[in-house]
Sequence to fold (63 residues):
Amino acid sequence: MADLGVRVFPLELTSANRLKRAEVLPQKFTTIDEAKETAVATIPDLTVPITSPAELNAFTALA
Fold:
């Protein structure tokens, strides 16, 4: 039987600031709880300015 474990794949941003899946990290974790901190740390930061009421409404509708 294969060695089971939890693997983390990070997200990265494209040049158009879209999220895409990156390569799976080489680390293997025993439990999901052990993988959480690493998984959260791989989420990229992105700030997008909201310049109109329509953009704000669209943002809040998707949040």
